[in-house]
Amino acid sequence: DGGITQSPKYLFRKEGQNVTLSCEQNLNHDAMYWYRQDPGQGLRLIYYSQIVNDFQKGDIAEGYSVSREKKESFPLTVTSAQKNPTAFYLCASSMRTAQETQYFGPGTRLLVL
Amino acid sequence: KQEVTQIPAALSVPEGENLVLNCSFTDSAIYNLQWFRQDPGKGLTSLLLIQSSQREQTSGRLNASLDKSSGRSTLYIAASQPGDSATYLCAVNGGSNYKLTFGKGTLLTVNP
Predict the structure, then answer these.
(1) What are the distances in angstroms from CA A97 to CA A50, A51, A62, A102?
(2) pLDDT tens per residue, range A40-55
């Protein structure tokens, strides 16, 4: 059953803590993306990767970091430098570029304690 | 800078009604436009993708049209059902390999 999985569904962050959101896909897609969704706003691109071992900053990369060591995996770390991390985080993938259909995971909701 | 607007922000209709959701974009030099559906607390599901050379795409009760020159797209839903209740988002690709510009969505409620 092909698709994208994200874990955990809910994540709580304490002040000054780094947390990592998992994203895995078995669609054999080259491109993967991380978006942030806030109430009343459109999705905003945090980071994207078009190939293993390569990734680029999106529109709101400050306070976030990523890695792409495997084709299937694109974890996102929310660092302590991100002062307003409370949001719904969505991972997506596409065959090669954003010119093709993007497939989304179920999302992770990050809350600050 | 591309901007995508979806009006209305929310729409409530009785079951069985045909309805139209609107999406407008400021830069008509687009590569394609996608319509997505998002259920509360869930990820996005792609509904239709229209290439810039196409005028419309159909999938079941859904029909999406594109008028590039006027910067508009519409999503037509025929014979609406309560299960169609969700937020509908449109997203534009302007030729970039990585970027989609999303609208804020229209929250649709179909009442039984």
Answers:
(1) 7, 10, 23, 9
(2) 888 999 999 999 999 9
